[in-house]
Amino acid sequence: MRAWTVRQWGAAGVAAIGTALLMGMATAIIDNPVFVRMIPTPWWAYLVWITSAVLLGLIVGTYVTPRGQVKRSDSAQHRPTLGAVLLAWFAVGCPTCNMLVVLALGASGAVTWFQPLQPVLAVLSLVLLGLALRSRLRNAESCPVPNSSVSVLDSGGVRGTDGA
């Protein structure tokens, strides 16, 4: 990350702030008129909320390249990150406000069964986000994008501008 450009840090910052706002508003960690928590937010949920937003922002920063470079990405790499973000969302959300949990377990089941699992979901989500970031950073170091200019052909292939 030492070699990151302003563009990469900017994307990471915007993604982190956007994630924090979206997750904070939807889980009512941030007071708002649309969503209301029925159970107070535990102290650890604030740490998980901010940490997951920062980690996701950094992961987004790994997908941004300096101008003039082409970076391919495999959609299969996005799945673990999406899963980790969803786990963080469930971890910091109000157990009785989550319609999926209430439908599956009922309101008393949400408090009895789901609420005690939320810290486990939180740790699991942060570990998965950390592993995803580590993997993205390692892959960026082991497979750097070449600095040569490339052109994209109509057929979708990529070749060098020297005709090779």
Give the radius of gyration.
20 Å
Uncertain ranges? 148-155
- Coarse shape: elongated
Number of strands: 2
Strand residue content = under 5%
Largest sheet: 2 strands, antiparallel
Look at the structure and give the mean pLDDT.
Answer: 81
Tell me the helix content: 55-70%
Secondary-structure element pattern, one letter each: HHHHEE
- Integer tally of domains: 1
Termini distance? 32 Å
Strands of the biggest beta sheet: in what spatial order?
A: 1-2
The structural class is: mainly alpha
Total helices: the number is 4
Question: Could you give the topology of this structure?
Answer:
Layout: H1 6-26, H2 43-62, H3 78-92, H4 99-142, E1 150-152, E2 158-160
Antiparallel strand pairs: 1-2
Helix pairs in contact: 1-2, 2-3, 2-4, 3-4
Transmembrane segments: 44-64, 85-107, 113-133
Keywords: Membrane, Transmembrane, Transmembrane helix
